[in-house]
Amino acid sequence: MVTRLSALVLALSLLAGGLEARAAEEKTERFITVASTTSTENSGLFDHLLPLFTTASGIAVRVVAVGTGQAIALARNGDADLLFVHHKPSEEAFVADGFGVERFDVMYNDFVLVGPSGDPAGAGGLAEAPAALARIAAAEALFASRGDDSGTHKTELGLWRAAGVDAAAASGTWYRETGSGMGATLNAASAMDAYALTDRATWLKFANKGDLEVLVEGDRRLFNQYGIILVSAAKHPHVKSADGEAFIEWLISPAGQAAIAAYRIEGAPAFFANARMAGG
Amino acid sequence: MIEFGQAFAAAFHLIASLDAGLVEIVALSLRISLSAVALAALVGLPLGAAVALYRFPGRLAVAALLNAFMGLPPVVVGLIVYLLLSRSGPLGVLGLLFTPGAMIVAQWLLVTPIVAALALQTVADLHTEYDEQLRSLGATPGRALWTLLWDGRLSLVTAVLAGFGRASAEVGAVMIVGGNINHVTRVMTTAIALETSKGDLALALGLGLILICLALAINFTAMAVRDLARVRHA
Amino acid sequence: MPDSILPLSLESVTYEARGQRLIDRLSLVFGAGPRSVVLGPNGAGKSLLLRLCHGLLRPTSGRVAWACPGAGAARHQAMAFQRPVLLRRSALANVAYPLALRGVARRRRKELALAALERAGLAELAQRPARVLSGGEQQRLALARAWVQAPQVLFLDEPTANLDPGATRRIEALIDGFHQNGTKIVMTTHDLGQARRLADEVLFLHRGRLVEHAAAGTFFDRPQSREAAAFLNGDLLW
Predict the structure, then answer these.
(1) Does residue C1 lie within any of the structural domains?
(2) Which of A126, B99, B191, C12 lies at a 20 to 30 A Cα distance from A116?
C-alpha cells in the first residue's frame, strides 16, 4: 500500500516537474524560431554567431535544422518565424507566394566537388564543374547525391543539366541518391569512395573524410548564396515579426556581417558576408 | 575498428569531466522519456486492464489494435504529431511544436500501446486465476480492475520498462516534433544523429555508449526491485 | 440483524456446457441449521452445484432462489475453494480485503482482520506475504477471510483435499467454529471419513442428478439408492 502510494507520487511529481520546467522556460525566454539547413548547422556557424546576437538583443534564437525543402515547408506552415536557406529561386518563390515579407542576401560560400584521392574518373583539377561531372558519368564512377530536394541538391541537378547528363536515369547504379542531409551523404561517399558535391563549410568541419579530398573548386556555378526571409504575419499572425526583423537587421548590419566573416574553420573563412544594407 | 577505442575514450572523457553539454542532454532525455512513460502508465495500465475485464462490442478489435500499435514506427508518429501541432494544423494554437512538450506527447503515443497491451495480457491471465474468488468476495468489475493491476505489479514493472526502453531509444519522433534545437530539444538520440551527420562517429558512438549504460542502469535497478518483491511474494 | 437468506431452493436446475448436460433437473432445498455435505464420484457435478448455488454460474434453465430476493443474498455468503486463492499481499491484507470492499474504515478493518487471524491461529503470520505460507496455513487464511464476511452460508469445495491430516483437523475445527456461530455449512468432499465426521445431512449426486438426500445417519447406515450403496461400498460407479 505504501509502495503503491509512493509510486503514484513519483509518477505525479515527474509529470509535474516536466510540466513546470516547460512552463518556466516558456515564460522566461524570449526567442525566435529559424528554419535553416543542416549544412549551415553542421558548419558550426550558428554556435559561433547566435550567442553574439542574443547578447546584443536579449533574444534567443532557436534553430530547427532540416533539409532546405523541409525548412521551406516549415516556414510555409508558420512553424518558424524566419527562413534561412541557400536556394535563391525557392526563396524568391516563397516571397512571391506571399509567405515571406522580403528576401535579404546574407552571406555566400561555395560548393566543392570531392572524391577519392585516386580520382578514377579523372575529374580533378578541371576549371568547369559540369565537365568534371561529365567525366564521372562517362566513367560510371560512384557519385553520392543528396537526393533530398535541398539547396545543395538543386545546385547539383543544375550542374548535371549543364553537363548534358541525365543522372536520374542512372539512379541505383553509379548514381546513388541517399535522400539525406549533407553529413549523412558524405558518410556514405566516404564509405563508398564516391564523388559528391558539398558546401565547403560542411566539408571543412566534416570529421569522417576517409580517402576523399577536394577535386574541383572555383567555378562560378559553384557559388552558394544564403538568404534570410521573415515569415509574413499576413499569412501567420502569430509570427514574432518585431524580434524577427531585429535578427535580420543585425545579420545584415556591419556587426553581424563582421561576425560572419570572423568565423573560421581550420584557419580559413567558412562564409563570405555579402549583405547589402537597405538603401545602399 | 579505430572508432570503438575512440568512442570509449570520448565517452569516458565526457563523463569524467561531467561535460555541461552532456549533463544537459542526459537530463532532458530522462525528463522527456520518464514523463512520457509515467503518463503512458497512467493511461495504459487501466486501459489494458479494462479491455481484459470488460466485455463490449469490438473488444477483440481493440485488443488487436493495441498489439499492432506496439510496433508503430516512431518516424510516422512524429510526422502525425507534427501535422497536428503545426501552426497550420488543428492544435497549432497550443504552440507546442519544437518544445519538450511535443516530444513527450509523441513518445506517450508510442509507449501507451506497449503498456496497455502488456497490461491486458497480464490482467487477463490473473483474471483466469482470480475471477471466481473475487466475485465470491463481492468485488465489482471496477474494483477487480485495480486489485488485479496491483496484484500483477511485478509483471507490469516489466511492461513499463519495455515502454521506457522504446521511448529512450527512439529518434524519429522526437527529431521531427522537437527539431533537435540546441539547449532546448536536443536529447541523446538526436545528438547522436547530429554528430553522425557531422561525421564525428567516435563522439556519436561515445554518446551511444552512455545512452546504453543509462538504459542498463535503469533496467537493472527496476529489475532488482522487482526480484526483491518477487522473493517476498512468490 | 439482517434477514435470513435461507432457505435456498433450487427448482429444476439444469446446467449445460459444451453440449453436455452436467446438472440435470436438480431440485432441492437447503435449510438453516444442519451441515450439508455433498457426496458423489468424480464428475458427478458437486463443484458445479456449489457454484450454481453461490451464483458464480448461471443455470441453463431452472431457478436458484434465496429467501431474500434480488442480489442482496450474495453479501451474506462466502466460499472457500480447494486451492485457496490469495492476493499478493500480506496475510492481514488478504483478510481485510473483503472489508475494504464493503467500505469498512481502515482501523476497524485491521481490528477485525487481526481478530479473525487470531481465531485461525495465524496471528504471528499477519505481516507475512500470503503466498509464502504453507498449504494448510493458506486454507486457514482463506477461512479467516470468510470469517470477517460474517456469512450466513459458507460454501466449501473440497477444502482439505490437498492437506495432510494435521492441517485437515485444524480446518475442520474452524468449520465447526462457523457452524457453532450459526453459519450454514454446505460442503463437498470425496473423503468419506470427513463426511461421516462433519455431515448432518448428505446430498448424493451421480451424473448431475440428485440421487439421494437424507440425514447423515440414515444415509451412511441405510442408503436407499443402488448408486449410493455402491459408492459407500467403495465400488466404481459409471
Answers:
(1) no
(2) B191
